[in-house]
């Protein structure tokens, strides 16, 4: 019987000595056996990591907002082979031990009334629609009992969304998901640094100043040459029939504005396809008499 540690290596010589054994079939069988063994080893490793993470943090008075550097390094290293389902198992195991589901929190998880199935949770002030009021959410009791507070729930879910969905034996070598995990506080600090490094947007005064400096006619010949060089049509034979066009703004001379006057053709303004109704004729005649 092959050894449980190396089943494929121990049984391969015996299989190779059997008459009628196809080497290709043997290679495929060995490949699948090694893959299954690798999956089992990975699952065993994940279970060991879960047992280690149950004991975090190292200090019973640790602050989950500012955890110890050693605990953070241990958490990130242990979560590399994890999938979201494995992370859910870690939360469940910590809850069974009476701890908060967030691995860097030393506090106990909430204990709600077992007779209540749902709870109404109110968000922060200004979290409602349009930034007014508070957001209301109906949460199952089991979800609330996973954590000690909503802050730890947010920290734990921030880590969960960074884990890779694929198992570790199917991931590509260049897949960085799960390798560079950030805590919620680290993500917020990086976002604030990015906003501070962004240059301020140009003011309206700067934009208007740039528009005043625009001139379409300046350097038109050189610009046309550069454009022709970019298009690849610098050959003289391609210039035939082309006309240099310069766009200028139309200059409108300011003059005095005259008041509108009644024109003779305006007297028939009430005509309908050349026919003037009788009432309209009388009204027009009365208007002319007044004038």
From TrEMBL:
Its main location: nucleus. Transmembrane segments: none annotated. This is RNA polymerase II subunit B1 CTD phosphatase RPAP2 homolog. Residues 77-172 form the RTR1-type domain. Keywords: Hydrolase, Metal-binding, Nucleus, Protein phosphatase, Zinc, Zinc-finger. It comes from the Eukaryota. InterPro entries: Rtr1/RPAP2, Rtr1/RPAP2_dom, Rtr1/RPAP2_sf. Its EC number is 3.1.3.16. Gene3D superfamilies: 1.25.40.820. The lineage of its organism: Eukaryota, Fungi, Dikarya, Ascomycota, Pezizomycotina. It catalyses: O-phospho-L-threonyl-[protein] + H2O = L-threonyl-[protein] + phosphate; O-phospho-L-seryl-[protein] + H2O = L-seryl-[protein] + phosphate. GO terms for molecular function: RNA polymerase core enzyme binding; RNA polymerase II CTD heptapeptide repeat phosphatase activity; zinc ion binding. Pfam families: RPAP2_Rtr1. Residues 1-19 have a biased composition (Low complexity). Putative RNA polymerase II subunit B1 C-terminal domain (CTD) phosphatase involved in RNA polymerase II transcription regulation. Belongs to the RPAP2 family. One of its GO terms (cellular component) is nucleus. It is found in: Nucleus. Residues 1-20, 252-291 are annotated as: Disordered. Residues 282-291 have a biased composition (Acidic residues). The keyword Transferase does not apply.
